């Protein structure tokens, strides 16, 4: 006679069946299953950046997929790797997930070689989002530097889709050179149709550039800010958001009304690999969107 | 919890039956070190007599039975331009005998991270729920400081827990799985005498701790002393080898690697345990490293143990086994580092 310990087959648990839903807890045991996606369009934005449109192939999974502006995905390229990418597009459109990706290394280089029809995987959405509900009735400053415009596009669309709920909206965008400007074809639309106040600036102009020259903070000379009625969303590298937020703070906007996004190395998106930790918080779970007050008080953040 | 006693003779019969029916893992003497002291390791055993129930401390912890150094997350099968993802979980039941309270507490901390919360890890859950744990009380080593961290006693997280009370074991039965196994082995109700012996043995063990680490307020001290020179003092010694995290029962961070098979027919996505002391832990594309110096990385490891983890789970991540201290080639150990940090505070 011997004792055999019974087997617990977690793969047979009822919640393991059906598509993953990262927004709901019930199906989260399938944490590493990807949604299979097709690249449906590729837009060449600059030498370094391309916009990819993805479509979740399974209609059921596609229906489950919702995200909030500011959240990110883990994008899987089988055999090459998995990388975090902000969702850059409207949260109202389910059929098309927009991702604006810069060539930076192994996975992103491969992606830049991909063609329409290529199949990729995504997990998510993950992370915190911009609290746009809280901003209702206020002026909004949408400020980006360089690639920061990628995550900023989701709130740009959101605010337009709820345009009557918000007061004055301004976009301020700065890049190094004119040819680094992303989505240059959209600013007219955002200005004329969305009724946003658009301000662009570059650091190193070329002979065709007729706009402003300098650092992004110079744009503040052009905009009237009512500190009691204004929220700010600032996307860009830490040096940039630090300067911008400190300026806004001097103008009188409280630090918990400015939102920034943090970037760290990520390998899971679920608070497990610890690679994204900043002080005591996980960028993937407690971020990437954080208010500036929280960021200021975090060890290692800036 | 059900409290019973089992005679040592019956325990041996019981374990042999368990071994006959299951993969059974237990501490074994595998070697002798340069000074002739025995070296113990958790390994598969085939008979009760192979088990070293009086083992001292295993060099590496039990963690790796739940978080293997390398583990497949999924495979992708290619077919022309198509691919399909395949995920498998390890669901092979096994028994681990002779686990110490600190190691059980280590697993409980991993449970917090990997079984509970928003994103449970099915890979871990599969292994954990298929492992039958038999715990055993023991005398602390000279450098054990688990008592300071409240980890010298396991309250749950095991199936059976034994305390030696002479010719029998005082036994805590914590699962119906465990209870069912005793249908054919005689176990006895506890008598007053057993209870007295149990309490006396617990007291005796508790009195044997020689190393203490002051934990009170440490969490805040981590914040206050963030810029302390103590980090530089110890950080400059650190070789960034990552051994401390490998042997630690509660370190769980990892990296993910993907590779394509030479046949080009499938790709493998693997999770490999990592260490926050390794140089590229926080390096991102383009080469920017958020923690470039060994000191910032060493500090971060302590910060997570005693601040980050506390913020999430209301208890430190460290269980006080000093495995990291024993294994560190640079002689860095948590007892001295925390002591130094405390002295800073006094100044
Ligand atoms: C929340 C978040 C949102 C992001 N959004 C965008 C975006 O919209 N567009 C865009 O172009 N880039 C974005 N990034 C950066 C992008 O993730 C990195 O450029 C990318 O991981 C580089 O991968 P690689 O394999 O090409 O580079 P390699 O240098 O070959 O990197 C190897 C691995 O390291 C990890 N890694 C390296 N750099 C980063 C990094 N900066 N952040 C996280 N993990 C990293 C990844 O796992 C990657 O596979 C975002 C990063 C984060 C954290
Ligand atoms: S003493 Fe070291 S190895 Fe043991 S739990 Fe604490 S940090 Fe980990
Ligand atoms: S084992 Fe010692 S030397 Fe190696 S990374 Fe850890 S603290 Fe540094
Ligand atoms: S990305 Fe793994 S913990 Fe945040």
Structure, explained:
- The complex is a heterodimer of chains A (302) and B (347).
- Chain A has 302 residues and is of the alpha/beta class.
- Chain A folds into two domains: 31-126, Translation factors (Elongation Factor Tu (Ef-tu), domain 3), CATH 2.40.30; 132-296, Rossmann fold (3-Layer(aba) Sandwich).
- Chain A has six helices and 15 strands.
- In chain A, the strands form three sheets. Chain A has a seven-stranded mixed β-sheet with strand order 10-9-8-7-11-12-15, with helices on both faces. A six-stranded antiparallel β-sheet of chain A has the order 4-3-6-1-2-5. Chain A has a two-stranded antiparallel ribbon with strand order 13-14.
- In chain A, strand 8, helix 4 (187-192) and strand 9 form a beta-alpha-beta unit.
- Chain A is globular.
- The mean pLDDT of chain A is 91.
- By secondary structure, chain B is an alpha+beta fold.
- Chain B has two domains: 2-68 and 87-207, no CATH class; 218-253 and 275-341, no CATH class.
- Chain B is built from eleven helices and twelve strands.
- Chain B has an eight-stranded mixed β-sheet, with helices on both faces. In chain B, strands 5-4-12-11 form a four-stranded antiparallel β-sheet, with no helix packed on it.
- In chain B, strand 8 (160-164) and strand 9 form a beta hairpin.
- In chain B, helix 6 packs across helix 9 and helix 7 (229-235) packs across helix 9 (294-313).
- The longest helix of chain B is centred in the C-terminal third of the chain and has 20 residues, at 294-313.
- Chain B is globular, with a radius of gyration of 22 Å.
- The model of chain B has no long low-confidence stretch (mean pLDDT 92).
- At the A-B interface, loops of A face helix 1, strand 4, strand 5, helix 3 and strand 11 of B.
- Bound molecules: flavin-adenine dinucleotide, iron/sulfur cluster (2 copies) and FE2/S2 (inorganic) cluster.
- The site of flavin-adenine dinucleotide (FAD) has 24 residues of chain A, from strand 4, strand 5, helix 2 and helix 3.
């Amino acid at each position: 006679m011997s004792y055999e310990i019974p087997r617990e087959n977690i793969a047979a648990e009822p919640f393991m069946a059906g598509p993953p839903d990262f927004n709901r807890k019930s199906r989260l045991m399938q944490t590493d299953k990807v949604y299979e996606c097709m690249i449906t369009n590729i837009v060449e934005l600059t030498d370094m950046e391309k916009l990819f449109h993805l479509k979740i192939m399974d209609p059921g999974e596609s229906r489950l997929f919702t995200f909030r502006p500011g959240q990110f995905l883990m994008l899987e390229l089988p055999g090459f790797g998995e990388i975090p990418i902000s969702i850059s597009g409207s949260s109202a459109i389910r059929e098309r997930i927009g991702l604006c990706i810069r060539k930076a290394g192994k996975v992103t280089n491969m992606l830049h070689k991909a063609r329409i029809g290529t199949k990729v995987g995504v997990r998510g959405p993950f992370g915190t989002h911009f609290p746009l509900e809280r901003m209702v009735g206020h002026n909004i400053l949408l400020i980006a530097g360089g690639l920061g415009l990628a995550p900023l596009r989701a709130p740009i669309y959101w605010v337009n889709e709820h345009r009557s709920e918000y007061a004055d909206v301004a976009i301020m965008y700065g890049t190094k050179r004119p040819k680094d400007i992303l989505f240059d074809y959209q600013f007219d639309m955002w200005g004329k149709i969305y009724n946003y106040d658009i301000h662009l600036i570059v650091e190193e102009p070329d002979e065709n550039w007729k706009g402003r020259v300098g650092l992004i903070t110079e744009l503040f000379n052009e905009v009237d800010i009512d500190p009691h009625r204004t929220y700010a969303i600032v996307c860009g590298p830490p040096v940039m958001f630090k300067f911008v937020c400190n300026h806004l703070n001097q103008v009188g906007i409280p630090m918990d009304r400015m939102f920034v996004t943090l970037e760290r190395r990520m390998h899971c998106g679920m608070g497990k690999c610890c690679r994204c930790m900043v002080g005591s918080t996980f960028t993937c779970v407690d971020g990437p969107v954080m208010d500036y007050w929280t960021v200021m008080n975090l060890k290692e953040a800036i | 919890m059900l409290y019973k006693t089992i005679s040592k003779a019956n325990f041996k019969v019981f374990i042999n039956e368990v071994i006959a029916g299951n993969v059974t893992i237990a501490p074994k003497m595998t070697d002798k070190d340069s000074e002739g002291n025995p070296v113990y390791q958790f390994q598969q055993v085939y008979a009760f007599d192979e088990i070293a129930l009086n083992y001292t401390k295993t060099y590496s912890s039990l963690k790796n039975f739940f978080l293997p150094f390398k583990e497949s997350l999924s495979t992708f099968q290619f077919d022309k331009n198509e691919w399909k993802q395949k995920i498998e979980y390890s669901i092979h039941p096994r028994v681990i005998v002779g686990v110490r309270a600190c190691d059980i507490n280590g697993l409980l901390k991993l449970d917090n991270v990997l079984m509970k919360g928003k994103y449970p890890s099915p890979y871990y859950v599969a292994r954990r729920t298929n492992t039958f744990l038999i715990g055993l009380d023991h005398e602390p080593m000279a450098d054990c400081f688990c008592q300071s961290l409240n980890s010298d006693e396991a309250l749950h997280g095991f199936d059976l827990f034994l305390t030696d009370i002479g010719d029998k074991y005082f036994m805590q039965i914590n699962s119906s799985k465990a209870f069912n196994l005793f249908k054919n082995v005689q176990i006895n109700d506890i008598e007053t005498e057993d209870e007295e012996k149990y309490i006396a043995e617990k007291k005796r063990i508790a009195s044997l701790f020689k190393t203490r680490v002051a934990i009170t307020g440490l969490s805040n001290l981590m914040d206050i002393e963030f810029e302390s020179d103590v980090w530089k003092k110890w950080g400059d010694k650190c070789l960034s080898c990552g051994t401390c995290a490998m042997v630690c029962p509660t370190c769980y961070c990892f990296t993910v690697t993907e590779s394509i098979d030479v046949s080009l027919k499938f790709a493998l996505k693997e999770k490999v345990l990592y260490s926050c002391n390794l140089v590229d832990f926080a390096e991102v594309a383009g080469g920017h490293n958020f923690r470039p110096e060994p000191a910032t990385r060493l500090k971060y490891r302590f910060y997570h143990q005693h601040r980050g983890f506390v913020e999430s789970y209301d208890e430190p991540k460290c269980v006080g086994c000093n495995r990291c201290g024993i294994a560190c080639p640079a002689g860095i150990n948590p007892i001295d580092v925390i002591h130094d940090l405390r002295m800073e505070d006094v100044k």
